C-alpha cells in the first residue's frame, strides 16, 4: 500500500511521507524516526543536531550567491495522534500506517493517517532534497511531542534558530495563510470513589456508545458532533432515575485533544430489570439517531448481557457525583470570536474519562484565542469539580499566536501565491493550537506564517489528505524559498 504513495506527484514529497507511514511515531516515541532522518541527512551532507528538548534541527547552507539573504526556518512536528476504530488490530508503536489512495485522497480507513503533521515534515524534507532550488540558508525544525504537550517547542532554547522568517507547515486548509492561533491548557479532574457490596440477584451489563465521527478538538469543536463520554453519562443518569443501575467501570476517549468517539460502562442491574433493558437501549439509540441525524448519523448505543454476578459497585453517592459531573460539565464552544467572524474564541473538550479500581479521572483540553480566557475557563472547570468533591489540576499551558496583519512575510506570501495561482489567498486565525505561539516566545523577532494542504478528519480514524493540494503546497513552498533568496 505504501508503494502506491511513492507513485504520486510530487514524488519527492510522497516518498518522504511513505517513509513516515512506515516508521511508528506516536507522541514521545519519535526516536526511531529521528535516527532515520539523521542517517538520511548524513547521506546528503545536511547538518543534523538534536537539541536539549529532543527536537531535530536540519541545516542546509544558502545556494551560491544567496549567502547574504536572511535565513528561513521550515517547521513541523514529528509525532501524530494515534487512534483506531474499535475492533481494529493496530499497534501504533510497531505497525506501519495502512493507507489507501482513493478518489484523489490519501486515507487511513481505520486509523489516524498522521498527515497531521507528517505532510508538513515531508514538504520540508522535500525542499532540502531539491538539488536545483535556489534558496537562502534553511533550518528545518522538527519538534517532538507536539500532540500531547508541545514539549519540543516548549523546550526550544532562545537563540537556537538563526533564521529571520519561519514557515509553519501544520495547518489543514489549502488556499489560506494562517497568522494566529489559540493557546491552551490541560485540566485533569480526579476523585477517589468507594464501593459497596451488591445483592446476589444483580447481573453485569456493558453499555457502549460508538459510531461517532470524533475529530480535532480545536478544528472541529464548533460542529456540534457527539461526545461519547457526555452521551454515555446522559444515558446512565436517565436510567438511574428509573431503576437501581450501579456503575462499576467506565472508559471513554483516548486523547484530550480529540473529540471522543467511543465510551463504555460496566454496570450492575437487578436481573428482573436487566431482562427488559434492551427496549430502553433501543429507544435511546433511536433518539440519538434523530438528534444527530445531520451531524453524527452513525451514532450507536448498545448493551451486552453477561451471566456474571458482580460483587460490588460504586457507592450511590459517588455514582451520583461522577455521572452528574460528566453529564453537566462544560464541553464545546464557550464563545465565538468578535474579531474573527466564524472562528471559535474559547472552548473546552472533555477528551478522556476513566473509572477503574475506585479512581475517577477526566481530562479536558481548554483552548482560547486569548490566553486570559483559557485560564479563566480552566479555573471554572476546577471550581465546578470542587463543587462535586473532586480535585482539579492545570498543566501544559501554552500561549496563543497573536496575529500580525502587517507582517512582511505575509505580504510576500500573498504576492507569491497570487503569481502562482492567479488569485488571492484567504487569511485565517485557527482555534487549534500551533507551535508558533511558543516559538514566538523563545524567538520573538522571527516573522511567522503557516499554511498546509487540505486535511480532513485529523485526530480521528479515516483521516485523509487531498493529493492535489499537497502538490500546490510544494509549488508554493519552492516559490517562496526562491523569492526569499532574492528578496522579491
UniProtKB/TrEMBL annotation:
<keyword id="KW-0645">Protease</keyword>
<dbReference type="InterPro" id="IPR002933">
    <property type="entry name" value="Peptidase_M20"/>
</dbReference>
<dbReference type="GO" id="GO:0005829">
    <property type="term" value="C:cytosol"/>
</dbReference>
<keyword id="KW-0479">Metal-binding</keyword>
<keyword id="KW-0224">Dipeptidase</keyword>
<feature type="domain" description="Peptidase M20 dimerisation">
    <location>
        <begin position="209"/>
        <end position="281"/>
    </location>
</feature>
<keyword id="KW-0482">Metalloprotease</keyword>
<comment type="similarity">
    <text>Belongs to the peptidase M20C family.</text>
</comment>
<dbReference type="InterPro" id="IPR011650">
    <property type="entry name" value="Peptidase_M20_dimer"/>
</dbReference>
<dbReference type="GO" id="GO:0070573">
    <property type="term" value="F:metallodipeptidase activity"/>
</dbReference>
<keyword id="KW-0862">Zinc</keyword>
<protein>
    <recommendedName>
        <fullName>Cytosol non-specific dipeptidase</fullName>
        <ecNumber>3.4.13.18</ecNumber>
    </recommendedName>
</protein>
<keyword id="KW-0170">Cobalt</keyword>
<dbReference type="InterPro" id="IPR001160">
    <property type="entry name" value="Peptidase_M20C"/>
</dbReference>
<dbReference type="Pfam" id="PF01546">
    <property type="entry name" value="Peptidase_M20"/>
</dbReference>
<keyword id="KW-0378">Hydrolase</keyword>
<dbReference type="GO" id="GO:0046872">
    <property type="term" value="F:metal ion binding"/>
</dbReference>
<dbReference type="Pfam" id="PF07687">
    <property type="entry name" value="M20_dimer"/>
</dbReference>
<dbReference type="GO" id="GO:0006508">
    <property type="term" value="P:proteolysis"/>
</dbReference>
Amino acid at each position: 500500500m505504501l508503494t502506491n504513495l511513492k507513485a504520486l506527484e510530487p514524488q519527492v514529497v510522497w516518498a518522504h511521507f511513505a517513509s513516515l507511514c512506515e516508521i511508528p511515531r506516536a507522541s514521545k516515541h519519535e526516536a526511531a524516526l529521528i535516527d532515520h532522518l539523521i542517517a538520511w541527512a548524513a547521506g546528503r551532507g545536511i547538518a543534523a543536531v538534536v537539541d536539549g528538548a529532543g527536537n531535530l534541527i536540519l541545516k542546509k547552507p544558502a545556494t551560491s550567491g544567496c549567502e547574504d539573504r536572511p535565513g528561513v526556518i521550515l517547521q513541523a512536528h514529528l509525532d501524530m495522534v494515534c487512534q483506531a476504530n474499535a475492533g481494529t488490530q493496530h499497534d501504533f508503536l510497531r505497525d506501519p500506517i495502512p493507507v489507501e489512495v482513493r478518489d484523489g485522497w490519501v486515507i487511513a480507513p481505520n486509523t489516524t493517517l498522521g498527515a497531521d503533521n507528517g505532510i508538513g515534515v515531508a514538504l520540508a524534507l522535500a525542499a532540502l532534497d531539491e538539488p536545483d532550488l535556489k534558496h537562502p540558508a534553511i533550518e528545518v525544525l522538527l519538534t517532538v511531542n507536539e500532540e500531547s504537550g508541545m514539549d519540543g517547542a516548549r523546550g526550544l532554547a532562545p537563540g537556537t534558530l538563526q533564521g529571520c522568517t519561519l514557515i509553519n507547515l501544520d495547518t489543514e486548509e489549502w488556499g489560506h495563510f494562517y497568522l494566529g492561533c489559540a493557546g491552551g491548557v490541560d485540566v485533569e479532574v480526579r476523585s477517589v470513589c468507594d464501593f459497596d457490596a451488591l445483592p446476589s440477584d444483580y447481573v453485569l451489563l456493558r453499555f457502549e456508545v460508538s459510531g461517532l465521527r470524533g475529530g480535532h478538538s480545536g478544528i472541529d469543536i464548533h460542529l456540534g458532533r457527539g461526545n461519547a463520554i457526555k452521551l454515555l453519562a446522559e444515558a446512565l443518569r436517565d436510567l438511574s432515575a428509573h431503576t437501581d443501575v450501579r456503575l462499576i467501570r467506565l472508559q471513554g476517549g483516548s486523547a484530550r485533544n480529540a473529540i471522543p468517539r467511543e465510551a463504555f460502562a460496566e454496570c450492575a442491574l437487578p436481573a428482573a430489570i436487566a431482562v427488559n433493558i434492551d427496549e430502553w437501549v433501543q429507544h435511546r439509540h433511536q433518539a440519538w439517531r434523530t438528534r444527530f441525524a445531520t451531524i453524527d448519523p452513525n451514532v450507536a448505543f448498545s448493551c451486552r448481557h453477561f451471566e456474571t454476578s458482580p460483587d460490588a459497585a460504586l457507592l450511590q453517592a459517588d455514582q451520583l457525583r461522577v455521572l452528574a459531573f460528566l453529564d453537566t460539565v462544560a464541553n464545546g464552544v464557550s464563545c465565538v470570536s468578535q474579531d474573527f467572524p466564524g472562528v471559535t474564541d474559547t472552548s473546552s473538550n472533555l477528551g478522556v474519562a476513566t473509572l477503574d479500581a475506585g479512581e475517577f479521572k477526566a481530562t479536558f483540553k481548554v483552548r482560547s484565542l486569548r490566553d486570559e480566557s483559557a485560564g479563566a475557563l480552566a479555573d471554572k472547570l476546577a471550581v465546578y469539580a470542587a463543587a462535586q468533591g473532586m480535585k482539579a489540576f492545570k498543566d501544559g499551558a501554552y500561549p496563543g499566536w497573536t496575529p500580525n496583519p502587517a507582517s512582511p512575510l505575509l505580504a510576500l506570501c500573498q504576492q507569491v501565491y497570487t503569481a502562482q495561482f492567479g488569485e488571492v489567498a484567504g487569511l485565517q486565525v485557527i482555534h487549534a493550537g500551533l507551535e508558533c505561539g511558543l516559538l514566538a516566545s523563545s524567538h520573538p523577532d522571527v516573522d511567522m506564517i503557516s499554511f498546509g494542504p487540505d486535511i480532513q478528519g485529523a485526530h480521528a480514524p479515516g483521516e485523509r489528505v487531498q493529493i492535489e493540494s499537497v502538490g500546490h503546497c510544494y509549488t508554493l513552498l519552492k516559490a517562496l524559498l526562491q523569492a526569499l533568496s532574492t528578496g522579491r
